[in-house]
């Protein structure tokens, strides 16, 4: 008979896999006659754009419906065969992550055609990421109903291809005769996830049919069936699913005379097993064990399953006995698993604090809660603006267009190198490619928990007490430099603060392997690009590490290479302009920063407002006198612990940390005396918070070492230091609620909706932005398209020592437009491509208001302009004349841009490949001694030599 196949594809939030699976179906050498896509309540838009006709159709079910119900619905809706000759109908069951190989269906049909007794055929399920890894290839069970995969997570070398007859196959990719599916009523509704396919195949076997696997048919899978359509499945839920499925099948398969005994022992046995889980140190399995027993005992579903089995059963259990897993094989499986666990313990590094068991996870969760409370106004926002922030470009292509040497449309446009930070922004925006600006919001929201996470592992590296890393993580997460950077929009400083602890760990481990050294080089580049003011500290730290680890210097010598490639064009350009210090300018939008005092820097304050205490207590008498004293007192415990570490036996490590702290403080102090960036009519200092991040990390490490070597008073000292540090920075965390935050959520639109609408048709449309200043002058900017973005900002432009010819013409144009004169602006407007003039609001300053009123009157009475009206950004005017299209740079500039991107790709791609470990090495058992105190491991074997 002619086989006729209906493919039933079940999708549940499968945006990451569905397109690939549909493409794989279309590429089959033997296409199915019908296709039914069943969407189970997807909310990720994966099926929103699907539209079928002819032999394909789309069905929708509410969320939460199991895979078996979706297949049953698809089977009912699939059209039956209407032909004159007999047809052998088959159902091909697929999930959204089951992308078949081109010959998968053909191989499955070939297998069932040569073996008519086979009514269920299963493919070889391989990893979605690595097709050479077998995820599942046949299923079976023990005599007590425990399901076992015959092949799991093995490298496919054809070692199992000779085994075809199995008890069961997985649901993904299963080919089943439609008449058998209908006769057996499909999957058991009481098994919504786990073991549904196993139970169905057992009933197929008992009905007198065969089940086989087809080695040549390969189908991908992204995970086990319990993860289908779910973002995450907890271990407790996983245990409950498997145990409940096992107990249900046990009740279903039990002989009628013993059913009552099985039912009576469900709960008592669950209690005993729960106690066994506690003894075996598996407390997470206790509640799922009890819940599964109660659900099977009192949840129903067993009677219906038993009646269905009795109706279709034609053979006895002896027919499937040879296909069950023997006790010997179960014992071998358990022995192998135990050996793997023992090997992990033996090969583990020095015993230190456990992230999950010793408080690491809790301090990160606490920091996450703090982030949600502090940054609540930012939740759900697609972009941020204010301070040093602007939205990113709307596409990934535009992000990468602003990376490297080439034409930049900022202002009147120029050819030159971009800031290295543009590459960091391009990577971040590419991760969230559908909404690049959202990546900036996410960085701000996860800043506190990620800081805690990195500091926990950094402190764990140099301490032995299990609770000390929690203190270090808490102190680093509430660092004044981090809070100040978040609330003022210094994105680069935030990223540098997050990466510094991981760079510390990577540099310490760089002597061990190329993987660590390459990882350190990438982190080094990220920190340097995000906070260029840290370049001197980073280079000094690298040189010291090079000298100290001179025996493995060839690895650490590679660390600054990617950074050098990233910075070289900018350094050469600034040197050619005679402005070397401009290399250290902060990336992003230039924003005015007030310089803190030396005392404020010493206690970690990047701003002169004492972490928000000064404005919060402005109404109190003599606040300027007693506030510095109080803040200094609050910092005493941390300082005492850091200095006291020099009295312990780990004085060398603590002393090194204090030297780094001194370098960080010196960097911050120097930053307050370097003014290279123009902001309006003035200049501003380099953001000192980046240097303070280095300072604070080093102080925290030294303080934790001091706490670690203290006697019984250590816990109290650590708690007091953390609480007092939290009190010192408390008002800064309330900046959004006190109205002190410089950043704010935005829709991602920089200019008005009117300009954005025009920019849709003409992306190069120019808008002259005129901003009245408090000193009576005007700040002028030229923005293209929908407005300036964060990734097209350039320190090369912000640190320019003199106006370019086109910049001078722009200033002349703005000055004459803002005053009544006989100047004809039409040639300049046409040449510069300016169609709009935006007069920004003046604020409350009288001089700025006077300038604003004069400019508004002059532009408003100019017949060349039409007033659009007030917008959220200011007063908008439209120039009615024709303007020229702006240049996009020469062909040489475009070629240089592509060449530079290729060089970056080669260098950073090589570093990334080296950073991925290719072969694990066994590590000898060691005592609980930190690595700095261990003898040299001159004769240790390393596989990457």
Automatic annotation (TrEMBL):
Keyword DNA-binding annotated: no
Superkingdom to which the source organism belongs: Bacteria
Segments passing through the bilayer: 251-271, 283-303, 360-379, 440-459, 471-500, 520-550, 557-576, 620-644, 651-672, 692-710, 717-739, 898-916
Region feature (Disordered): 924-945
E.C. numbers: 2.4.-.-
Biased composition (Acidic residues): 931-945
GO MF annotation terms: glycosyltransferase activity
Keywords: Glycosyltransferase, Membrane, Transferase, Transmembrane, Transmembrane helix
InterPro entries per the UniProt record, alphabetical: Glycosyltransf_2, Nucleotide-diphossugar_trans
Pfam families per record: Glyco_tranf_2_3 (PF13641)
This protein's name: Glycosyltransferase
Species of the source: Curtobacterium citreum
UniProt lineage: Bacteria, Bacillati, Actinomycetota, Actinomycetes, Micrococcales
């Amino acid at each position: 008979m002619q086989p006729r196949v209906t493919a039933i594809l079940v999708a549940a939030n499968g945006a990451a896999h569905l397109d690939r699976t549909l493409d794989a179906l279309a590429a089959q050498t033997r296409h199915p006659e019908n296709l039914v896509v069943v969407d189970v309540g997807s909310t990720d838009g994966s099926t929103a754009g699907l539209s079928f006709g002819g032999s394909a159709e789309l069905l929708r079910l509410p969320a939460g419906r199991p895979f078996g119900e979706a297949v049953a619905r698809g089977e009912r809706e699939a059209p039956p065969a209407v032909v004159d000759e007999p047809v052998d109908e088959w159902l091909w069951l697929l999930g959204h992550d089951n992308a078949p190989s081109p010959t998968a269906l053909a191989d499955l049909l070939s297998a069932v055609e040569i073996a008519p007794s086979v009514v269920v055929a299963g493919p070889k399920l391989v990893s979605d990421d690595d097709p050479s890894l077998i995820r599942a290839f046949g299923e079976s069970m023990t005599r007590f109903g425990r399901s076992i995969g015959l092949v799991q997570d093995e490298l496919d070398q054809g070692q199992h291809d000779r085994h075809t007859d199995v008890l069961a196959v997985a649901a993904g990719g299963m080919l089943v005769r439609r008449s058998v599916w209908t006769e057996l009523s499909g999957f058991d509704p009481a098994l919504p996830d786990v073991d549904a396919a196993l139970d169905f195949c057992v009933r197929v076997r008992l009905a007198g049919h065969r089940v086989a696997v087809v080695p040549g048919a390969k189908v991908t899978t992204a995970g086990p069936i319990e993860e289908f359509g779910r973002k995450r499945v907890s271990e407790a839920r996983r245990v409950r699913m498997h145990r409940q499925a096992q107990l249900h099948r046990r009740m279903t398969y039990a002989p009628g005379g013993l059913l009552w005994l099985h039912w009576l022992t469900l709960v008592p046995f669950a209690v005993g097993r729960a106690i066994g889980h506690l003894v075996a140190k598996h407390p997470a399995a206790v509640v799922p064990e009890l819940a599964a027993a109660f659900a099977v005992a009192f949840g129903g579903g067993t009677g219906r399953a038993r009646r269905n089995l009795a109706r279709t059963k034609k053979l006895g259990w002896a027919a499937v006995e040879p296909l069950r897993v023997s006790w010997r094989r179960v014992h071998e499986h358990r022995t192998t698993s135990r050996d793997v666990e023992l090997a992990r313990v033996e090969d583990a590094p020095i015993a230190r604090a456990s992230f999950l068991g010793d408080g690491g996870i809790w301090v990160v969760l606490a920091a996450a809660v703090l982030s949600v409370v502090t940054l609540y106004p930012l939740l759900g926002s697609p972009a941020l603006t204010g301070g040093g922030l602007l939205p990113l470009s709307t596409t990934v292509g535009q992000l990468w267009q602003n990376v490297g040497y080439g034409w930049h449309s900022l202002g009147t446009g120029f050819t030159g190198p971009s800031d290295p930070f543009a590459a960091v922004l391009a990577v971040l925006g590419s991760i969230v490619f559908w909404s690049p600006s959202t990546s900036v919001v996410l960085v701000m929201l996860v800043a506190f928990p990620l800081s805690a996470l990195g500091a926990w592992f950094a402190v764990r590296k140099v301490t032995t007490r299990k609770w000390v890393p929690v203190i270090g993580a808490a102190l680093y997460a509430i660092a004044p430099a981090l809070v100040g950077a978040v609330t003022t929009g210094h994105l680069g400083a935030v990223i540098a603060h997050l990466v510094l602890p991981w760079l510390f760990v990577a540099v310490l481990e760089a002597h061990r392997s190329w993987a660590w050294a390459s990882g350190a080089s990438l982190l080094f580049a990220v920190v340097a690009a995000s906070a260029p003011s840290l370049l001197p500290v980073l280079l000094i730290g690298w040189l010291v590490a090079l000298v100290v680890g001179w025996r493995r210097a060839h690895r650490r010598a590679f660390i600054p290479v990617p950074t050098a490639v990233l910075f070289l064009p900018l350094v050469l350009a600034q040197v050619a302009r005679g402005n070397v210090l401009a290399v250290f300018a902060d990336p992003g939008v230039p924003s005015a920063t007030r310089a803190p005092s030396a005392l404020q820097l010493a206690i970690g304050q990047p701003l002169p407002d004492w972490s928000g205490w000064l404005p919060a207590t402005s109404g109190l008498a003599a606040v300027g006198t007693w506030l510095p004293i109080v803040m200094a007192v609050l910092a005493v415990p941390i300082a005492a612990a850091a200095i006291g570490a020099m009295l312990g036996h780990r004085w060398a490590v603590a002393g090194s940390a204090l030297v780094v702290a001194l370098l960080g403080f010196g960097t911050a102090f120097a930053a307050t005396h370097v003014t290279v960036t123009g902001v309006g009519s003035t200049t501003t200092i380099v953001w000192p918070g980046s240097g303070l991040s280095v300072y604070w990390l080093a102080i925290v490490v030294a303080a934790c070492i001091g706490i670690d070597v203290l006697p019984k008073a250590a816990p109290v000292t650590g708690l007091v230091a953390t609480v007092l540090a939290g009190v010192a920075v408390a008002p800064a965390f309330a900046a959004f609620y006190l109205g002190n935050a410089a950043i704010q959520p935005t829709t991602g639109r920089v200019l008005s909706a009117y300009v954005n609408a025009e920019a849709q048709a003409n992306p190069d449309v120019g808008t002259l932005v005129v901003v009245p200043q408090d000193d009576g002058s005007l700040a002028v900017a030229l923005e293209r398209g929908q407005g300036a973005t964060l990734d097209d900002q350039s320190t090369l432009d912000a640190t320019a020592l003199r106006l370019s010819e086109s910049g001078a013409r722009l200033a002349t144009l703005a000055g004459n437009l803002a005053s009544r004169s006989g100047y004809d602006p039409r040639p300049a407007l046409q040449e510069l491509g300016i169609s709009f003039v935006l007069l920004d609001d003046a604020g409350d300053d009288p001089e700025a208001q006077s300038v604003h009123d004069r400019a508004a009157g002059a532009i408003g009475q100019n017949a060349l302009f039409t007033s659009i009206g007030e917008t959220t950004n200011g007063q908008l005017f439209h120039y009615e004349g024709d303007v020229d299209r702006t240049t996009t740079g020469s062909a040489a500039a475009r070629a240089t841009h592509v060449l530079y991107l290729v060089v970056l790709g080669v260098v950073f791609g090589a570093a990334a490949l080296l950073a991925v470990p290719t072969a694990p090495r066994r590590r000898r058992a060691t005592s609980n001694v930190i690595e700095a105190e261990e003898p040299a491991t001159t004769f240790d074997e390393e596989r990457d030599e």
